[in-house]
Amino acid sequence: MVEFGVLGPVAAWDGEGRALDLKGPRHRAVLARLIAAQGRVVSVDRLVDDLWEEPPAGAVGAVRTFVAALRRALEPDRPPRSPARLLVTDGPGYALRTEAVDARRFERAVAESASAASHHAFAMLDGALARWRGPAYAELGDRPWVSAERRRLEELRSAAVERRGEALLALGRAAEAVPDLDAHASAHPWREETWRLLALALYRSGRQAEALAVVRKASGLLRDRLGLDPSRRLRGLETDLLRHTADAGGADALWERASTAFTQVRSVGAGARIESTVGLLRGLAVTGAGGLETAGGQRVATVEAAERLGDPRLTARVIGAYDVPAVWTRSDDPARAAWLRAAADRTLKALGPDATPVVKARLLAAIAMESRGTGGPREAAAAREAERIARELRDPALLAFALNGVFMQSCHRAGLAPERSAIGAELVDLAARHDLASFGILGHLIRMQARSALADFTAADEDAAAAASLADRHERPLVSVFTAWYRAMRTAATDSFAAAETAYREAAARLQGSGMPGVETGLEALALLCLRVRHGEPAAFPDGTDWGPYEPWARPLLLAAHGHRDAAGEALRRTPRPPNDLLLEALWTLTARAAIDLGDLARLHEAREALAPAVNELAGAGSGMLTAGPVASHLADLDAAIAAQQ
Fold it and tell me: Global pTM?
């Protein structure tokens, strides 16, 4: 079979790979024009116009001569006067009837790679790109039809280079992606996506400074050469590189590739599809901001789809399989969390006594996880029951998930840092013995928080470093947000007001766009207010400061600082009890300081009773994010204020 090539100089080879003699440049041009037509008929008049700017006399006869010579070269064994099988006459012109063209095979491979798993996509694209022998339709000049076809194929080749780079990144082979992406970016400086992928490949190869330099170089080239502003995506990558959260950008593409590939497996039933989707969501949730947001947005739809099938066992597996570790005790989306918790309740009731121990434990753990910051005795009991079942079953992965639920329900009163430290220690041990990397990171972060509350910063430093090391090894970019805030909180506990203020603002910049609104919203303002409380400074903040969910506890101090004492007293009386989360002690401390300032005896007693169990802790430091100073100092001030009222 004859093979044709246009991904380089126009060529043809016989069945044994020997090059065929295609005669002169006009012969090659005729063959190339017919290849470009992809099997369609090209009239003789069109061939004449496409071969010459000013056709000579006898151009039509010349074309027929070229065709005859090509037929002899392509089918040397064809009997005289028998019809041609490849280069055929059809009506007013000619057509090349074959699919054995390198360009067409290249196009098919690129198209098929879009829905393939990463390792298959890489293999297809690597083979497809290897077909290129030089510029498409080389040596044929710049006739309009040549230029159009060349541009089309070169654009497709650029997309293939970028997709190949994406596949290597998805496979964890970032260093292998660098050389080709680097060469392609140099040859095609307007290809913003190539620059972006090159920067990501450098970053994931441990070459952060070079990655940042590439993004800045690309931005400069786009502005200076083309007069274009870099896209939001490229600008965002520069920010992500500075924050060390650059892995977030690939999560949406990962979701699309994997989900598309799975939906094309037609033999898989609906239930299996839904369960496999949960596995994908679990992976996406730990890849960074984009993955976390995508997973959260898709999870409700996945559970809804399972419920519509009417199989509570399937629904239970779908809910319970999402055992993504969580260290922050405030939900990113309270309404979504409430819906998921209700779905877990419904499923547990639907199963009744038919629920297996594993299914029951996972549903109970899910209830505890989705009730973070809002749970009460029932949710705490659900977490402990899940833990009991997991211990009886000797199931380490289930126990780790259950312990995460116990941790989420461990803020029902102040002073529980030692208990949380024990949970973290067990998670670290479980992870080390059973290769549960994500729960190992969680365990170290929990211990980092708990040891901070106990002012044991030497030990907390060790856990922060261990969490960061595991996160680097297993590509968990969001961990760096928590360790950055830990360093800021440590500065607030041990250094000057000015140093702590700077550290908090830098940590807040890293948190922006992290995909964790439950952490981000209002945290910077709260941290700076706690810093002022620790140093005895007035609560002076500009109008428009975003307090997020912490506004009720900040408001009395803000009003008092502006001299509105009556309004401050009324706001203090309306201040609710803090939610049962990691900021419990910090918010009680704000209430305590407002009560001291305003002389509200009822609130003084209430705050003292709430904070007393945490007498040996730093207020708020158990969050790993901020601190208002030693609880003992605030208790002493409360006692003095109460005594003054009596």
Answer: 0.62
